[in-house]
Amino acid sequence: MKTLIAVLTVLAVIIAFWYAACLPMNIKGVLTQAERAGAEVVPVGAKERRDLGEIGLVLGNQFAIAATWSQDRPRLPAPHQVAVELWKTTGAMVLKGKPMSKRSLIFHGWVTLSATLLGFAMGTGLGILLAVGIVHSKVMDMSVMPWAIVSQTIPIIALAPMIIVVLYSVGVQGILPKAIISAYLSFFPVVVGMVKGLRSPDAMQLDLLRTYNASANQGFWALRLPASMPYLFTSLKIGIAASLVGAIVGELPTGAVAGLGARLLGGSYYGQTVQIWSALFAAAILAACLVALLGVIERVVLKRMGMSA
Amino acid sequence: MMLVILAALVWCGGWWVNARLANGPQSDSRGVQLLVPVIFGVTLLLVWQLLVKGLQIPMVILPSPVDIAVAFGANLSKLWQDFLQTFVKGALSGYVMGCSAAFLMAIVMDRSDFLRRGLLPVGNFVAALPIVGTAPILVMWFGFDWHSKAAVVVVMVFFPVLVNTVAGLRETSAMQRDLMQTYAASYWQSFFKLRLPAALPFVFNGLKISTTLALVGAIVAEFFGSPTVGMGFRISTSVGKLSLDMVWAEIVVAALAGSMFYGAVAMVEKILTFWHPSQRG
Amino acid sequence: MTTETTTQAVIEARNLDLVFQTNDGPVQALRDVNLTINKGDFVSFIGPSGCGKTTFLRVMAALEQPTGGEITVNGMTPDEARRQRAYGYVFQASGLYPWRNIARNIKLPLEIMGYTKAEREKRLNEVLELVELSGFEGKYPWQLSGGMQQRASIARALAFDADILLMDEPFGALDEIVRDHLNEQLLKLWARTNKTIGFVTHSIPEAVYLSTKIVVMSPRPGRITDVIESPLPKERPLDIRDSPEFIEIAHRVREGLRAGHGDD
Amino acid sequence: MTTETTTQAVIEARNLDLVFQTNDGPVQALRDVNLTINKGDFVSFIGPSGCGKTTFLRVMAALEQPTGGEITVNGMTPDEARRQRAYGYVFQASGLYPWRNIARNIKLPLEIMGYTKAEREKRLNEVLELVELSGFEGKYPWQLSGGMQQRASIARALAFDADILLMDEPFGALDEIVRDHLNEQLLKLWARTNKTIGFVTHSIPEAVYLSTKIVVMSPRPGRITDVIESPLPKERPLDIRDSPEFIEIAHRVREGLRAGHGDD
Amino acid sequence: ADEVRLQLQWVTQAQFAGYYVALDKGFYGEEDLDVSILPGGPDIAPPQVLAGGGADVMLNWMPSALAAREKGLPLVNIAQPFKSSGLMLTCWKDTGITSPADFKGKTIGVWFFGNEYPFLSWMSKEGISTDGGPDGVTVLKQGFNVDPLLQRQADCISTMTYNEYGQVLDSGVSEDELVTFKYEDMGVATLEDGIYALEDKLEDPKFQDKMVRFVRASMKGWKYAEANPGEAADIVLENDASGAQTEAHQQRMMVEIAKLTAGSNGTLDPADFDRTVATLLGGGSDPVITKTPEGAWTHIITDAALK
Ligand SMILES: Nc1ncnc2c1ncn2[C@@H]1O[C@H](COP(=O)(O)OP(=O)(O)OP(=O)(O)O)[C@@H](O)[C@H]1O
Ligand SMILES: Nc1ncnc2c1ncn2[C@@H]1O[C@H](COP(=O)(O)OP(=O)(O)OP(=O)(O)O)[C@@H](O)[C@H]1O
Ligand SMILES: Cc1ncc(C[n+]2csc(CCO)c2C)c(N)n1
Ligand SMILES: [Mg+2]
Ligand SMILES: [Mg+2]
Q: What are the recorded Gene Ontology BP terms (chain A) (predicted)?
């Protein structure tokens, strides 16, 4: 409850600040348009205004203030513009009975989500396998771990087109290339967290199993795996957000046919800032939902295991 | 075909040597700990070279390590220029600004429970905005030169550092805080003598994550507009020219710079948090 | 110095109540606690786990707010006394800061209270001597054994001039021999400085050996079931523990404890 | 059952040495240790912190490899004995798995050793009874007090048929009353099952009360300085602790300890 | 039916109307072809896809194709549906630019990705340096939208007659606020949107035959699109899965595209090729090609398709 009030307050402040920021950000565009439409603007001429301070322009042309919140292609769209666009492309689409039309963010969100989930599953699987290998084999620990870190310093956006071309060449198209890129981003947090988790049992807990003469396999299922669960969930939450970014990056070079990435790109090509912002928010909302969902699963699983107080 | 078989042999050989080293008596010495990953990397490169040649993969798809090394050697000054533009001007300045801002913000949030409750969820939401969407916007706002790259980096590193620092500043045990209470220590006394040192391991966690984010962020931003220099610029234009060797040379620079940046921060961490169990080994 | 009757009350608790609100409902940690501690008293608190010993000590040091009754320290509220830096507190675990070496850990309260540099060094050397840690000032906590850490944390509490020393099972982790030795040292220090000491322990002989007053507590709800004034002299050699008075008091404490021990 | 002389050696250590290689150079944890433990013995190990008690127990259980000398368990190496699941080991802290409730914690070794489901339930109920935890099987460790946790971990070590029970300060964290109670229980169990028990403690009365043989150790390097055979009968009521024999043995142990305590 | 995969060099838009029309109207089907059209994107290089075997045939601008050929990827132009270039620079009039000589000291947005060469050779022809300074131009790597011009971050930007120029006008700017320089008019035009295939694959008569049928159907599509721009734009719109294109925009693009395809029957005019090569060889310091390419085009396919 306290949190809710705090969040709402912060949101209110941010939105107020956002509206205020629209003034300086959009004033030049608004004035140029107003001038073309015949209004009197001081000073005259877009070129003269180029190097002037935005605040001064706002003060000198106060008639234009309202227009900075309703521009067609603003530098910074106002909150309500983004909200309206989001509604038009989601809720309104559902009401019209075509939620899967290609102008609907539900459709594009689903395209991205499916690649995200597939990639997340692959990345998590790979990450867990690697972590198990690293924990059980010293060679893997010493040789793979440093390179896993290096792999994350490579800019994925440079690699993505190459991955896609290589996969094309072996006949793989569609959702899989995107999923692989998204797996590439999500496996790393899982490896790191899972290695930490599988190593979290202390010496005493391990020794206990030794006195029982338990096999490595029994040790894994009875001790290491359950002990790693809290760590696993923490990294899964990071991993799924990374997966979503991966799926979006993967959409850019595949012809940006559909998906939130395609909306971002399309918006960017045609200067549709409102469309970019709504796609951005849709992506962030999707990520937040996925993380929240994992949080719920985490709570249920840990509770069942008796690990949460 | 011969080469492919050879590649398999090299792989097994490299693995065998590493297995010997890692399970050998010297496995905990610094030398071996460096050698094993190096051998792994070299094996990987050899296998790559042999497979590319063996399967006759065209250079425009995947150049061999030798091709990449040649391109690297032939374009040193260009690579250096790109490195300066992207890493020093874009990534580093953005990193410093973003991390400092996040740190100051974390202190403010630490002092006000209300702000912390309100800002953390909103911050997590903002952190989920995909960079490929924010980068074009920031290029539009901050222009084509490194300023917009630094802005992208600021946005990317801000939240990991913020979240970790906030968590770190709350990491002290009740007993450690109570001790300060019995001394009737002021806020800043307990901040500098207790909370800050205790938070350092967390802060560095955020700082380390941010090193790779910073470089990747600066490069990605250059894809959406840049002057005619920079690692991201070079990568995106070289793909168009099918100079894949140049693309990979830049990727090598990125990996080197990123790893060294990470290593440098990790080293500072080792010095400053020598007392933490994870560093005592 | 030995028989100077000090009747000046330092700590006075009247009808103290403390209820923790937890997820499983309220926990009454202290119920109707009355106690007077005079200047120069050495008061031990003994009782089964969970009977509120730590909680009571924390209330005295203003680390916890009572939910009922009242408590005064030197005539002030505990919080005012805290602001005047009246307390040296030794926690159950040593609670040294791992990023400071032993010397800097001990100097921590001195830095905070604004002692001069020369004064800090002087006091450091004094207390190091006292707890026999000279030569270890450059070591970090994790480089010392548990016993040495505990001694360093005692030194830290002694380094500044607190009138009231509150110690929560300071010797719990030590073996008998070391414990005996530190008990002796603590008694000497107490006799020399005339500090008022509140001391939590699980060990009956320790409580009897050290105290002028033994407070026996009982759980669910936490309350005081017995207060035993010790007739032992202030000067106490270790073998006083074989004297009949000692054994008698120990017996009384054990009986008191057993009575409070319903189940568990 | 009381005076059956069992002279069959279960554990024999000859000139045992153990050196740890650490960053600060080698640490000699055990030097030239010789000891014979017979079937049905209750052997206590006592000595100051760091003298190698835990290390010795770990060597017996094949959790540590000696660097010199030799040790046999039932005529085999400790590791062979470990493979035959000869040991029940109780660690210093309870070491229960937090994600398993008490019942499943106790059944853990039974699962690993492949007992049938029916057998598991039977044994669970037996040992729960024994340590007086019936009714708590569904609770998770963090829902129990420290004493109950420790009892659960003892139950876990008793659930399967290990001949040799090794206990490393199992009652260190408990208060005296609970401790007395568990000591009594442990003696009863031992009398009934004729297990061989190795027991580490810091408390002299505890060692004397429980043991047939008290091993006094001394640090730097860790070695055995005295082995005291107890003349006390196997049947021991709690008030045996006031008998002259008891006090005499306790005295001898204390002297042995003091001798080994150079500094620290 | 024979399978053909066509790699476009950009996202679905009326620039590629001919192929979508041929697909939609069944012209490919009539030739017994099963064509799949793969949209491109900002950083996908069609030659790379072709080299990897991900596509059989692709569209490309000639500078990029020739560069790839020199890199050892034997691309061959088999048809050239675009007769003229749609590339131009668009500048604000109020910057005072009236002729290329006025570029000095100005900031100009240029598309890279192999498309910078016509610009570089143009500048070297004008004798203007491209590394900043008062006597040269400052070059920006422009993204694929017109923001740099609208935000006045650049004085001039690259635009296509059929796409970006329209966007500038759409955002409310009137034509007389702008000055434009068409590469075609400046004499530095290079060939755009040709159809390319790999040389070794072309040696296979069956593949040749497939390409003949493909080019024939595609040109039929182009001519249909030229004649029915409205319908063509609608077909394109239907094929755009991203939902980002607008009707009006595609309509206008189709009209402009029709101007560029007019005058080509698909056969490459060798004179155009020579002019392109000359432009590229005349480029600045870091030339895209260093020598006149041999065998970079063929008439085999178009001859067979159009006879
Ligand atoms: N912060 C807290 N929140 C809720 N309950 C608490 C809190 N602190 C203590 N308690 C409860 O108050 C009671 C008294 O606790 P306290 O720590 O004072 O016991 P103690 O006598 O010091 O025990 P021990 O000998 O185990 O240290 C216990 O039941 C404990 O669970
Ligand atoms: N794994 C290890 N590596 C290095 N040194 C060790 C290790 N384990 C124990 N030691 C050292 O060996 C010595 C004996 O340790 P041990 O744990 O056996 O003592 P202990 O008698 O059980 O002490 P305590 O009463 O504190 O439990 C100590 O000096 C300790 O520091
Ligand atoms: C990655 C990439 N960028 C630009 C072009 C050139 N190009 C071809 S069509 C078009 C846009 C028309 O609106 C442009 C710019 C390319 N081929 N590939
Ligand atoms: Mg306590
Ligand atoms: Mg031990």
A: transmembrane transport
- Residue E109 sits at φ, ψ, to 5 deg, of -85, 130
List all residues whose CB is within 6 A of at least one atom of ligand 3. E 9-10, 15, 42-43, 61, 111, 113, 115, 160, 163
- Nearest by CB to A255, which of E41, E144, E249? E41
* Complete DSSP assignment for chain D: --S-----EEEEEEEEEEEEEETTEEEEEEEEEEEEEETT-EEEEE-STTSSHHHHHHHHTTSS--SEEEEEETTB-HHHHHHTT-EEEE-SS----TTS-HHHHHHHHHHHTT--HHHHHHHHHHHHHHTT-TT-TTS-GGGS-HHHHHHHHHHHHHSS--SEEEEESTTTTS-HHHHHHHHHHHHHHHHHH--EEEEE-S-HHHHHHH-SEEEEEETTTTEEEEEEE--S-S---GGGGGSHHHHHHHHHHHHHHHHH----
Q: Does residue C27 line the site of ligand 1, with CB under 6 A?
A: yes
- Which residues in chain B touch residue A284, judged by CB atoms under 8 angstroms apart? 125-126, 128-130
Digit-by-digit pLDDT tens for chain B (281 residues) are: 788 888 899 999 988 988 888 888 877 778 888 888 888 889 999 999 999 888 888 888 889 999 999 999 999 999 999 999 999 999 999 999 999 999 999 999 988 888 888 888 888 888 888 888 888 889 888 888 899 999 999 998 998 899 889 888 888 888 888 888 888 888 998 899 999 999 998 899 889 889 988 998 999 889 888 888 899 999 988 888 888 899 999 999 999 999 999 999 999 998 998 887 777 65
Give the ligand with the smallest distance to the CA of D50.
2
User: For testing the chain C interface, which of D24, D49, D148, D242 should be mutated: the one with the most C CBs within 10 Å?
Assistant: D49
Question: Of chain A residues 179-238, which have a CB less than 8 A from chain E?
Answer: none
Can you tell me the distance from the alpha carbon of E41 to that of E64, in angstroms, rounded to the nearest whole number?
15
Which of A9, A75, A139 comes nearest B141 by C-beta?
A75
Helix (H) or strand (E) holding A277: helix A273-304
Which chains pack against E, by 3+ Cβ pairs within 8 A?
A, B
Ligand nearest to the CA of E165: 3
Instruction: Note residues around ion ligand 5 (Cβ under 5 angstroms).
Output: D 54
Please, do chains D and E touch (3+ CB pairs < 8 Å)?
A: no
Q: What pLDDT was estimated at residue D173?
A: 67
Encoding tokens for residue A82?
Answer: 């983004």
Q: How confident is the model at residue D234 (pLDDT cuts 50, 70, 90)?
A: confident
Q: Alpha-carbon distance B158 to D37, whole Å?
A: 64
The rounded distance, in Å, linking the Cα atoms of E233 and E221 is: 12
Out of B175, B189, B198, name the one closest to residue C95 (CB): B175
Q: Decide if D97 and A223 are in contact by the 8 Å CB cutoff.
A: yes
Judged by CB atoms closer than 8 Å, whether chains meet at B259 and A153 is answered as yes
Q: Which residues of chain B neighbour A143 with C-beta distances below 8 Å?
A: 18, 22, 36-37, 39-40
* pLDDT tens digits, one per residue of E40-50: 877 788 888 88
Query: What is the enclosing helix (H) or strand (E) of C73?
Result: strand C68-73
**Assigned CATH for D7-86+164-262:** 3.40.50.300
Among the partner-chain residues C63, C85, C97, the one whose CB lies closest to the CB of B178 is C63
pLDDT score recorded for residue D121: 95
The Cα D165–Cα A146 span in angstroms is 44
Please give the residue of chain A at the shortest CA–CA distance from B160. Answer: A238
Please give the angle made by the CA atoms of E278, E279 and E280, to the nearest 5 degrees: 90
What is the residue extent of each domain of chain D? Answer: 7-86+164-262, 97-161
For residue E13, which atom of ligand 3 is closest to its CA? 13
The tokens 């507590």 sit on which residue? C217
- What 3-state class would DSSP assign to C200? strand
